[in-house]
Every structure is written in C-alpha cells, then in structure tokens.
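We emphasize that the prediction below concerns an isolated chain of 277 residues; any contacts that depend on oligomerization or on bound cofactors are therefore not represented. The input was used exactly as deposited, without trimming of termini.
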Amino acid sequence: MREAMRAPLLAADDEQALARRWRDDHDDEALHELTGAYMRMVIAMAGRFRRYGLPMSDLVQEGAVGLMQAAERFDPDRGVRFSTYSAWWVRAAMQDYVLRNWSIVRTGTTTAGKALFFNLRRLRARLGDLEGRLSPEACTSIATELGLDTADVEAMAGRMAAGDRSLNAPVSGDADEDWQGLLADDRAGPEEEAGTTIDDERRSQLVAGALATLSERERGVVIARRLVDEPQTLEQLGAEMGISKERVRQIEQAALNRMRTYISKRVGDPAAAGLIG
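Result of the prediction step, given as a token string:
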C-alpha cells in the first residue's frame, strides 16, 4: 500500500496514451502503469468501507479487481478521464464484496436494497437518529428520500442493528436447548405424505379408467382442454378438427358427463374426490 501511494499521478494525455497502448497493442506494461497510478484511489475508497468490519486488505484486493475491469472496458476516445471512469468500477466491486461478506444472510440483493444498505447509516446520522430503534419519523423521512416503503426501511434498520446468530447457540446460558431446536418444520409428516401419495395414485387410476370409456375424439378433446399445462381454446381445437367451437364444447361436455358417471359408480361424488368439478 505504501508503494502504491508513492506512484506518480498521471496527466490526461498520459492516461490516453497508456490506455491506447493497452487497448490496441495489449501492452501489459502500459496496463500496469495505468492501474498502478490509481491504486491510491482504491486504498482511499477501501478506507471508507472499513466501517462494515471487513479486512482492509480484502477491500483493497476487491477494488483492484474493479480497477482492472475498468481498464479492460475503458475507451480513451470518449474523452473521459480514466480516474473518473474507474471510480465507479472500484466502488461497485467493493460494494458487492461488502454485501457478500457482511453477513451470512445476503443483504441488498436488489438495486433499491443496495442503495438502502449503503445510505441508511449516513441518513440516520444526518437526522441525528443513530442510537437504538429507528424512530417512525426518521423511517418516513428516509423512505421518502430513497423512494422506498417504510416497511423496507424498518426491515433493513433491524437487520443492520442485529448481528448474525448461530442456530447452535443455546437459548439461554444454562439451557441445553439451542435455537435450532425451536425452528418449526413446515413439511408434511410421514403419514400425511403417504396418504397424499396413495390418494394421488388412486385419482390417476380413476381418471385413466374414465378416459378409457371415451372415444378417441372425445379423449383427445378432454386431454387438450383439461389435462395439459397449456389448455387449448375451443376455437383452436375447432380449427384443428375442422368443426365449430360449439361442436367442440358439446363433445367436451358429453365426455365429461360420461367420465362423471364412471367415477360416481366407484367413489361417489367426483368433485368431493378432487376429480371432475
């Protein structure tokens, strides 16, 4: 870092010349000189991200990656200083690193969430509301300034105020139970899963038996209208079969009535069995 801070600054013409040598000739020496001159910017920016509790060396490395990405994409013919162009890439690389490593739980996955994460502390400081729970007035003011819902601001404030907690940590100092043991399992139990599987198999068998009682044309209409992910319309089927959509509707209705009769003789009401309504 000390060596980077001693690197000489570049004039605009020097930047342009080095950038062209790298772009046109892939001159590694030009690339190193160009990026080396702005490592001091990377170090200075890394210092502003240290408040998130991450190692300074890691922040500098991530910023250096962003600097290299900027050099790869920089177009010297646009008349923009490389220092201005690369600052965005360096900041973006560090922000992404902070979001990936600040917590086990990923925070700020959207553009709005990222803006809230990196601006919440600054806005709270400006409002003089840094201690404790975010006040409703401050929450409303921040949400209005960033164009977000107050619920999103409250959730982010609570998330940033609380650190990660291990699920294996004990509930209390003298308790044998840990937090993981208090998590509810929303999955179905073995008996419910077995019952669902048996019911599904029975329904499939009933529907297959009912379809077997239909003619080929009736079976094709019912399958196209009721048993596929993207059912066809009456108009589409009529065009394919060369008949009117009203005739298709009549065929479908007659086929469904026959299927209801077949199923009713075996299980009673088809609707109660979760089959044909």
